[in-house]
Amino acid sequence: MSIKQCVGVTVIFFFFISLFSGCTLLGSTEVRIVSQSIYDDAGFPSLSVRFNTTGKITLKLTGPLGSLFQEEFFSGVHDAVLHLDAYWKTPRGGVYTLRALDRNNNLVFENQMTFTGPDLSIAEVEYFWWDSEQGTDLVGVEVLVVNNGDLPAYPFRVVVDVASEIGSGVVIPRVVLPLEGERIAACLNIAAISKNMVDTVVTLQDLDESEIGRITEQVAVVDSVDELTFSWRYLGARSIQIPELPFLYFYYRDRERFLSDDYAVYVFDQADDAYIEVLAKVLSEDMGTMDTIDTVNYIASFTQDITYASDDDLDPSCEYPKFPVETLVDGRGDCEDKAILTVSLLAYLGYEVALLRLPNHMAVGVHLPSDATGFDYFLDEYYFLETTRNRWVVGKVPDEYVGVTNATAYPITSRPVLLHTWRDATRFTTSDGEDYIRMRIRVENIGSGPIQNFVVQGEFMTVDNMSRNPRNVVVYGLEPGLQVEVGLEMDVPVGVTTVLKTQVVVDGRVVQEKESTSTFP
Length: 521
Fold this sequence. Notes:
Blueprint: E1 31-41, E2 44-53, E3 57-63, E4 66-73, E5 76-83, E6 94-102, E7 107-115, E8 120-132, E9 135-147, E10 157-162, E11 165-170, E12 181-193, E13 197-205, E14 211-220, E15 227-233, E16 237-243, H1 246-253, H2 265-268, H3 273-287, H4 292-304, E17 307-308, H5 324-330, E18 332-333, H6 335-348, E19 352-358, E20 361-367, E21 383-385, E22 408-411, E23 418-429, E24 435-445, E25 454-462, E26 467-475, E27 483-491, E28 498-506, E29 509-520
Parallel strand pairs: 17-18
Antiparallel strand pairs: 1-2, 2-5, 3-4, 3-6, 6-7, 8-9, 9-12, 10-11, 10-13, 13-14, 15-16, 19-20, 19-22, 20-21, 23-24, 24-27, 25-26, 25-28, 28-29
Helix pairs in contact: 4-6, 5-6
C-alpha cells in the first residue's frame, strides 16, 4: 500500500448538495429517461438511471423477485442507483419494470426491460502446480471468463476435479459485466497428483452454489510455481518450503484496511483459507508427533523468527495490520502481523485462540487447561503467547505486560463483526424552507458468523449530547462476508447546532458509529 493509515476515530466529511425544487407545476407530471445502463455498484448488480421529472414522483422497480426499489424524487434531473438483487448475488433473467407515480399515485411513466441474464463461458484456465514433499499439488487456478449475457455475474467459488480428486476455493472477488471478460483466481489444496495428462473439470459457482460456468479438458501436470523458504530453530534446525501465489499476495496487498480494532477480521477472510491449510499441513509434516504445548510453541517459533519490522519507523504507534499472506511473502511484520499469522495457523489446527490487544502491543491468547503450563492465565482463561521474541514459550508474559488490566481478547470464533459506511448523503431543501437528509448506508459483516438482526440508526446530536430527530431501520439477518444497504431520511433540526451521527446497534449495544465533521443547520 502506498498510503499507511492509523486505526482510530472515524471521521466523515459531509458534502451538502441542494437539489430541490418542490414547486408544483400545472398539468401532469412528465418523466423522461436521459440514460440508463447495467453496472456493478461495489458488489450490487444495479441499473443506473438518469432521468428528468417535472414534478414529485415515486420511482419503483420490480423484477422476477418482486419489488426491488422505491424512492421519492422531486422535479429536476436525478441519478438513481437501482439494485437488481442482493450483494454479490447473480441476478436472474426476466422482465424488470420501471414505473413512476405522481403525488396522486397516478402512473405517469412505465418501461419494461427484458433481460436474458448472464451467460458465462470459460475461455482458458491457468493451473498452479507445486511439487510438495508428497507429490505434485494443485494450489491455485486462474480462470479467464467471458460474459456473453446482458446482466453481471458474481462468481463466488471455484470447484476443480483433477483425476477424480476434488477441491474448491473462494474466488478473489471479481464481477463479470455483460460483454466483458475477467480473470477469476482462487487458491486450492488438491494434493499428490501424478505427473501426466489428467482429466480436469473446472466449475464456477455463484453465492447460491448454482453452476454458472464449466470447462472440461485434459491438462499436463507440471511444476509451475516458485517457493518461499523459511529456516529457523526449534528443537533443532527447521526448514520448510511453501508455494508462492502472486495473485493472492497482490489481492491482499492492495486491499483497504478495516477501520476496526478487532483484528480478528484479518483472519476471517475466506480467500486465503486454502493457503493457510497448505502452510499448516507443511508445518505439521515438519513437526511430526508433538504434544499440545510443543505444538503451540513450535508454531510460535515459526512466526517469532520472521523479521520484526514496525509499520512506520517515524511513528511506531501507527498500525497497518497485514493479512497472513502479506507477512509470509514480505518476510517481515510487527506485533499484530505476527499475531494474526499465528492465530490463523493455531485456529486451523483446532486450538481455541484469540488476539490480545494491549497498550501499544498485540499478542496471542491460547485457551488450554489450567494445569497445562507452569504459568497463570493472563486473561479470560487465555495463556499469553508472545510472537515477537524468539524462543518465548506459551504462558510466559513479558515483564512490561505483567499485571496489565486494560487488555482485550478478540476470539477467533464464529461471530459477526459489523462495519458501516456512508455511500451517499444528500441534503434537500423543500419549497417551504424545510431541510432533510437522505442517506444510503452500507453495512458489511466482516466477521466469520451470521447475525440474526441489528439496527442502523441515525440522529442529530447537540453539543450537550441530546438526540434530535432519530430514525432507525431494522435489518433481519446478515451472513458473513456479505453486505446490505439501507436508507435513512431525517429532518434537519431548526434553531440548534448539531452534528449528524449514525450507529450500528446490536442487542442495545453500539458496535460502531460515525459522525459528520460539518454542523447543522
